[in-house]
């Protein structure tokens, strides 16, 4: 495990358990055996993150004397990974290499984008150690971005594909999440109906096919093909950040029809099981 006895950062992850971006961060922290506490955020009131002007999850608070807030799942992963490899810089300094930039989407909405979020901030020697050849780094960055920009968008349309699936998904969300009793009931029925329609809109926005399963299967097989037959993981004998991202995203469908269908209709199973095993082996459960 990468963690030596000097690991002094106290980590607190603010999350919704069923959110793919949060799951990605957990997969990363678990694989590296980093201890962290979880604060489950109520998705309706969100009072657990009142302290933050950034209103999305995941948020990671890292405390090494003074608390430092990290936003955006890919920034969290890149910054903590950089910190694990390079003990030259304080985490604060590392985080400053990922400045938030306001941009406007095609829909005219103002959003925060983070510069360099798929880069690890390493010196030449460290880079050589982690990425012996340049292609390895390029490949990892490409597929991390793919997980965020494409794979994630296939989850909702697939788990809310039919009214029945939408209800099952919300049942799972309410069971795993933090809701009051009435709020949970309300969220389940109203949420399931709403998400069924939202997923239709997402389907249009991302130009998905009539049967969104086809897009999911194709994406997943594209990933398996990229890993190839000659390596256990994209990272070789151990998962790299792309492996952890893809696994983290797909894992949120576990227990749902979409997940079972994916296991049957694609070639993902062997890789997925290897990921599960390696994370259980290294991970320290807290």
Total of domains: 2
3D shape:
globular
* Total number of strands: 6
Strand/helix succession: EHEEEHHEEHHHHHHHH
- The amount of helix comes to 40-55%
Rg, Cα atoms, Å: 19 Å
Mean pLDDT rating: 91
Low-confidence stretches are: 1-5
Largest sheet, in brief, is:
4 strands, mixed
Secondary structure class reads alpha+beta
CATH class bucket of the largest domain: Mainly Alpha
Describe this structure in words.
It is a single chain. This protein is an alpha+beta fold and 286 residues long. It has 2 domains: 1-121, Glutaredoxin; 131-281, Glutathione S-transferase Yfyf (Class Pi), Chain A, domain 2. The chain is 53% helix and 12% strand. It contains 11 helices and 6 strands. It has helices at 20-31, 73-85, 91-95, 124-130, 134-159, 163-176, 181-205, 212-227, 241-251, 257-265, 269-282, and strands spanning 10-15, 36-40, 59-64, 66-71, 100-104, 110-114. A 4-stranded mixed sheet has the order 2-1-3-4. Strands 5-6 form a two-stranded antiparallel ribbon. The longest helix is centred in the middle third of the chain and has 26 residues, at 134-159. The radius of gyration is 19 Å and the shape is globular. It starts with 9 loop residues before the first strand and ends with a helix.
């Amino acid at each position: 495990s990468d963690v030596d006895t000097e690991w002094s950062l106290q980590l607190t992850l603010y999350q919704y358990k069923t959110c793919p971006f949060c799951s990605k961060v957990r997969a990363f922290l678990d694989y590296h055996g980093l201890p962290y506490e979880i604060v489950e955020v109520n998705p309706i009131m969100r009072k657990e993150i009142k302290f933050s002007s950034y209103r999305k999850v995941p948020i990671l608070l890292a405390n090494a004397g003074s608390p430092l807030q990290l936003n955006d799942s890919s920034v969290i992963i890149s910054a903590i990974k950089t910190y694990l490899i390079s003990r030259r810089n304080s985490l604060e300094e590392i985080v400053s290499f990922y400045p938030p930039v306001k941009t406007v989407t095609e829909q005219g909405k103002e959003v925060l984008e983070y510069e360099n979020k798929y880069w690890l901030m390493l010196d030449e020697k460290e880079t050589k150690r982690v990425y012996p050849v340049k292609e390895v780094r390029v490949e990892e960055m490409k597929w991390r971005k793919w997980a965020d920009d494409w794979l994630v968008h296939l989850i909702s349309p697939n788990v809310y594909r039919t009214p029945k699936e939408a209800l099952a998904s919300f049942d799972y969300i309410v069971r795993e999440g933090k809701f009051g009793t009435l709020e949970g009931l309300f969220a389940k029925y109203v949420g399931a109906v709403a998400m069924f329609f939202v997923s239709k809109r997402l389907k249009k926005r991302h130009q998905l096919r009539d049967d969104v399963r086809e897009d999911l299967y194709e994406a997943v097989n594209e990933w398996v093909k990229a890993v190839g037959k000659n390596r256990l993981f994209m990272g070789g004998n151990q998962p790299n950040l792309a492996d952890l991202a893809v696994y983290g995203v797909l894992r949120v469908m576990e227990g749902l029809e979409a997940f079972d269908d994916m296991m049957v209709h694609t070639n993902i199973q062997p890789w997925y099981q290897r990921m599960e095993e390696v994370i259980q082996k290294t991970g320290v459960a807290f």
